[in-house]
Structures are given as structure tokens and as C-alpha cells.
Amino acid sequence: MLTSRQLVYQTLEFRAPARVPRDLWTLPxxxxxxxxxxxxxxRRFPPDLTGCYVTGYTSPVQGDPYELGIYVDEWGSIFYxxxxxxxxxxxxxxxxxxxxxxxxxxxWERLEFDADAANAFCRSSEKFVMAGCCPRPxxxxxxxxxxxxLFIDLAEQxxxxxxxxxxxxxxxxxxxxxxxxxxxxxxxxxxDWGAQRRLLISPGAWRKIFKPLYKDYIDLAHAYGKKIFxxxxxxxxxxxxxxxxxxxxxxxxxxxxxxxxxxxxRFRGQITFWGEIDRQYLLxxxxxxxVEAAVRRVYENLYQDGGCIAQxxxxxxxxxxxxxxxxxxxxxxx
Length: 334
Prior knowledge:
By secondary structure, this protein is α/β, with parallel strands linked by helices. It is built from 14 helices and 11 strands.
């Protein structure tokens, strides 16, 4: 019998896996509100991918990002949270003005993670192991400046913006390379690029400023023989051609914000679609029949001897029966 690791590799390489691999994402909200369903989901549909979350260093964070109150992240940004089980919002930026730039706290301690423990974990697991780092340059800039201020920065493009972005990117490259030297199977990066019907910045600006950063991440991963995954919420159809061109192995995106049929006609068999099923309407308000139809739509348009990972997110508002239906339907398809 194939291991989960082998199954995921077959999927990413379009080698006709025996079944579609699974990946279940949850927020603490799900465990808080539906503890029994939460446990049953993992028992019935164990994920084939897992993260490698070793540390070996002391983190300076304060608070819990998913609890009520204040959370201070590793870079010094202050989040306020008024809903338990989901993450809060940055209200006090670490770089409130450009005069704060020389005082930026870079979390160098993250580069001191226990690589031996990471390797031991990889050897002990039959799952496809993802590295314990996830570069997110666009989002990191939002956390450091606040979202509203960053969009002003992107419009005005002061030299300090690019100095900050370079600093963040170089840190991420160092962290990613250290993980690439371990025995993990995959690396990942993320940025939420989409609004409901368009990108948050123009495709041209994205290609000029951010695409070169993603090329660095993808090239680095492949240089070490690792698969590389990306996540983005929202409508990102305009930049999927760029991600395919760069050689991205797997993309997690909100497919139901976009034209799934058009995406499939152009990119099926060229990239793995790492989920997901619509959590704006279907998982929270849809019927199980609608959820089943949605999974079949993804399969019929995007699967080609692999190229699909059964993934969805059990998050705030999701109905447990709809999350179960996602995985039940995928199980029945191959």
C-alpha cells in the first residue's frame, strides 16, 4: 500500500494516484464550537500532509493570536482580537512611520530551529511533510505598516518601502534555505492577493514588485529538490499564468471566486490545485447536495491523472456536515 507521502508525490507529478490525497485545515473556532465533529473528521479522513513545527528557540511573541485581547507577533506588530478562535487585526504597526525602519525587529531566532529534530520527524512520518516556515512578503508588509498604509505606500512607492521589502525577503530566503536543507518534502509561501472579483493591486504592479520574490522562493525550493506550494485567498485568476510559468507545484486558492471551467481548460495537468471548496457560502450555508456538486465540479474540471488535493477549511461558520461531505465525495470519485 502506498504511503501518504507517495500518494502526494504521485498527485503532484500527475502519475495517476489510487485516490486523491487529503488535507484538512481548521481554525481553533472549529474545535471550540464542534469538538466531537472536529475529532471525528480527523479520525475518518486523516490528512496526507502534515507540518513540521519543531522549534528549539525561544519566541518573543506575547499572547495568543486566536484568543481575545492583544497579541504581539515576532516582528513587533500588535494585533487586537475580539472573537475567540480566529486571528485579530493589526492596530499598532511596528513601522508606524519610516523613522521606525532602523528599529525593525527581525526574528533571527527562527533561523535557530532544531534541524535534527525536523529530520527525525520527517523520518518518523509516512505523510508528506511541509516545512515549518511560510514566507508571506505582502502580508508581512501589511502587518508591519497596516493594510491601509501599505496601499498608500504601494501607490507612492517611497524608497523606504523597497528597503523594507528587501529586508523581509532576504530574511525569508535565509529561513527557507535552512528548511530546504532538511528532509522535508515541501516548502510553502502565501499571500492573500484577491478581493472578491479582482486582485488587490494591478497585475502589472504585482508582476513588477512581487513576482520576482516568488520566483526566488520557487527556484530555491526546486534547487534543493523540494516541492513548492502557495496559498492565496480571493480572486487571483489573472496571475495563475504567472505562477504556472514560474513552476509552482501546487496552488491553494478560493476557486469559487473564479471561473473554474476556464482555469481547467488552460491549466489542468500543469499545476496541482490544492483545494479549496467555497467557505464563503457553501460550507456555511449550502446544502450537502450543493457541496457534493461543488466537489464534482472541481474534479471534472481540474483533475487529470492527479493535480487535485482534497482540501477545505473548517473555519468560522462552517457546518460540520458540509465539511464531512467534502471528503466523502472525494473518497467516492476515484
